[in-house]
Amino acid sequence: MKRQHIDKGVHSGFFLxxxxxxxxxxxxxVFLFIESIPVFDHITIKEFIFGKxxxxxxxxxxxxxxxxxxxxxxxxxxxxxxxxxxxxxxxxYLAEIAPPKVAQIVKxxxxxxxxxxxxxxxxxxxxxxxxxxxxxFNIPVGLNMFNASLMLAFMAxxxxxxxxxxxxxxVPSALKEASFxxxxxxxxxxxxxxxxxALSGICTAVILGLSxxxxxxxxxxxxxxxxxxxxxxxFDPVRPLPATIAAEMAEAAFGSEHYHAxxxxxxxxxGFTFIFNLVADYISYKFRQTGEASL
Amino acid sequence: xxxxxxxxxxxxxxxxxxxxxINGAALAIMVYYIVSRGWRAxxxxxxxxVPRDSxxxxxxxxxxxxxxxxxxxxxxxxxxxxxxxxxxxxxxxxRGKLVRLIRLGINNLAGVPSIVFGLFGLAFFCIVLKMGVxxxxxxxxxxxxxxxxxxxxxxxxxKAVPDTFREASLAMGATKWQTIRKVVLPAAFPxxxxxxxxxxxxxxxxxxxxxxxxxxxxxxxxxxxLFDEVMALxxxxxxxxxxxxxxxxTRPLQYGTALVLIGLVFxxxxxxxxxxxxxxxxxxx
Amino acid sequence: MERxxxxxxxxxxxxxxxxxxxxxxxIDFDENRVTALIGPSGCGKSTYLRCLNRMNDLIPNIKxxxxxMLDKKDIYxxxxxxxxxxxxxxxxxxxxxxxPKSIFENIAYGLKVxxxxxxxEITRIVEKSLKxxxxxxxxxxxxxxxxLGLSGGQQQRLCIARALAVAPEVLxxxxxxxxLDPIATQKIEELIAELSSRLTIIIVTHNMQQAARVSDRTxxxxxxxxxxxxxxxxxxxxxxxxxxEDYITGRFG
Lengths: 295, 285, 253
Prior knowledge:
The complex is a heterotrimer.
Chain A: H1 2-36, H2 45-50, E1 54-55, E2 62-63, H3 66-97, H4 100-115, H5 118-137, H6 145-169, H7 173-181, H8 186-197, H9 199-215, H10 218-223, H11 241-248, H12 257-286
Antiparallel strand pairs in A: 1-2
Helix pairs in contact in A: 1-12, 3-6, 3-9, 4-6, 5-6, 6-9, 7-8, 9-12, 11-12
Chain B: H1 2-38, H2 44-48, E1 51-52, E2 57-58, H3 61-92, H4 97-111, H5 114-128, H6 135-159, H7 163-171, H8 176-205, H9 208-211, H10 233-242, H11 251-284
Antiparallel strand pairs in B: 1-2
Helix pairs in contact in B: 1-11, 3-6, 3-8, 4-6, 5-6, 6-8, 7-8, 8-11, 10-11
Chain C: E1 5-16, E2 19-30, E3 34-38, H1 45-51, E4 62-70, E5 73-74, H2 82-88, E6 89-92, H3 103-113, H4 119-132, H5 136-139, H6 152-165, E7 170-174, H7 182-195, E8 200-204, H8 208-214, E9 217-222, E10 225-231, H9 232-237, H10 242-248
Parallel strand pairs in C: 3-8, 3-9, 6-7, 7-8
Antiparallel strand pairs in C: 1-2, 1-4, 4-5, 9-10
Helix pairs in contact in C: 3-4, 3-6, 4-6, 6-7
């Protein structure tokens, strides 16, 4: 009977290890909370979120992150405007239009885009994109919201593309054939049958892509210009949430108010992505393709 | 008019095709700049020497070693935990509330911003566990970040193993664990390998999680234990490109370091992509 | 002649979630005889077969009622070890499913997991099993090559050899020839006849000629119920029920 006992032990062992991920997530939340709480001895949550001034090293210091939130939201939306159409169109191209041989080349390209280290993208933004923008638009600085959004779009496209492609690919071919049999062209079938059928997957893709963009650190740290103010145009420099944490953690003394404020920013950022992920998870769980008739 | 509809289709398809090629062009331009300017900086000395003259000359050897050390710790943590989690989710418990909760946790962990991992690593590994800024802290932080990638890839590999293999093994009186160990895992091994390479390549390129947990601005020493701080390729690029007064002078070094980093990361990715393509071909026969 | 009943089920019901797939099935299986289960697709014959080595346990949300006995012991008794049960009740599947290992390793697998360590013993049993499955002459020179290089018919005989290696007392066969060509099918049928002298065989088939050729007794299933159980000769020549007659003469199914 010995190996049957081993089997039971192994089962329990795997179960315990499987709990590791959720424990880690839980610990992350706990530590963000613990390290954030002290800052709220000094200011209220409302002042923190809606305060317009972020002067963490002044005396007395200001810890209002509205400008930082605005910066994050603006770069994310602008990058979304670029990445969403490009990502979805690439997905449709790969799943529906491209000849298999071409798709075999384009897919690895998308994967390599995804694997490009963010610091290299940030570096590219500084040395190539910034001077280019400066010249073309005739503006004083090339490190701004527009530059950062372009770079973030580059990072979000692979996420949007690969998840959308899965969704488009999983649309049952019976639906497609039915549309063809009624005399629709391939393009009409894509727009009126395939994309609606894949819509929940595409939504998940977009949410996860934007979630990746809002949480991305190095690109916005290096390319966005770093001014903690509410932007007036897309060529203004901004300072998104992750960039603030990354840039200031080195100078914030351990245990200081500033240190705790940066953790509080981390908590806000975590909140954003957590909600994005829950929504994405909900959509993909609720609208699972369960049959050909689940439109 | 069918002709008009087909014309419209042709036009739309060209647009979609153009969109796909824009991505390729963006990647190509980026790689072109870094390769064309970086390769001049690359030399044997660059790869094997320590930085000199306040990092305006010399090489990046400590960064390469540091990144490899961080990746080793990452793999050491993420691979066993990731594979075991995936085995549990795919072989033992495929449904139920708890499983759904675990999956939700993994999905959310995958979405946590990299800088938040950095904050967590700083607060937990460096301070609470008193490991300080070290290879261990940085590697563990990266390990948790890489976990969802490895779980996902392993699950995919396990799903690709036909159920009839499992049934045949069980029907001969093998236990579940024997079946997993001797039939399922060997068949899934190439897929797990591919996923691990992808996970590690991602960890190798990350900066934010290690900025305050493992990597430092400058240290001439190579790590001699897990609790030493290290230099790392991605952080080195960031430091050279943004901090200090010599930004313009060290441009070639920045390009060179960036080239080494993408060489490392793309090398791993291409290996994984090729491995996977070969595997798929094999499965089809 | 006195009958030895190796295995039987009594009033066996089977549920997938809330839908009942098997209703009140009672069959007894004679030792060292071949029993065929026939019926149209979806009639529950495969589900029933998989109840006999508890292979259905792998599916979530199932429920079994009634009794299934092997040598007068209930195989659904909680104290019974399912791993041992499956060693005693072997199975051959619809599609040949050799492991992606060498021919030798495929056969040796069952021995190794069941704790046989002696190399000479393993080699001896591998050869014996391959001979029993009438495939030894075709593979003896390539034992270390991948089993995936064999033809479909050879793979299926290899799978039978693999099942025989752990010396089962009962062998369940789930449409073992349905994926094979007529010549390979004939070989499998000859093999079944050969094996039935020392093994209790229960075979599911949708091919009535095959049932008539290989089996001693035949059970006809329809819509999850056992319609008729009889000696094969009787069932195919003088069925007791109209429904059975309609099916075997091809009027439905």
